[in-house]
Amino acid sequence: MAPGRGAENEFLVESDDALAALVNVIAVIGDNEYFLGRRVSEWADAGPLLESTAACAAITQDKLGHSRAIYPLLEELPWPNPPTGLQGEVDRARRYSVSFLDDPLPSWSNVVAALALVGPAVNVVLESVENSRYEALARRAHRILDEEKLTSAYAESLVRQIAYEERGRALLQERVNDLFPEMLCWFGPEGEEGIEALRAEGLASMSNEEMRQRYLDRIVPLLKGCGVEIPVERDESEGRWEYGDLPWNEWNQLQRRLERSKATA
Fold this sequence. Notes:
two-stranded antiparallel ribbon, 6 strands, mainly alpha, globular
């Protein structure tokens, strides 16, 4: 039995599997918020429209603020040598963010794809822990989700803007082709032990597949409505999205990312 510590964490985690998964989820949320903020910041003075400058600056501030709110929880949990919170990009070698965010985003279409696909995925995980028995995490998740409403609306508007013309739509299609398989894997295989341990202890509310299906509910109508092809089909009789086989042989469960060479990423 692993007790929490600190004023905010007076609760018991019954299993080491659940505690390890909780540490991992916090690191994953923190790193994806951090690196998404960093990558957007690099476009704060280079977006295609004047409004992009202000929007990128605001999104950067929010994302980095979210990571700073999440990271201290890693130090509160009774786990040996947890990942440290990031202040700089090279503070630690191991990253718990999607590989799409490893390097500066080379084009505006990459920025749009990251906001449209990575942001909603993180929000779904936050929704899963918003009513967590771990109240410190639940409070932060609730606040972040409230702040994300404007960012989500802006990301949707960017998708519509870039997809309005054929060239922009083609560029976005390429980025989605690169990123979409990783984001589907990002929620993990159904029945993943860590996620099941979190659910069993009231630390998360959704299974891997429930998160993946909610994510698809959120992004597929927008992308398909803008003419972007997504390799999924809706099975109305089952009330779910069908997406075929995923590249689990390339999946890094700990860091929740695909391990692909730069040549094929």
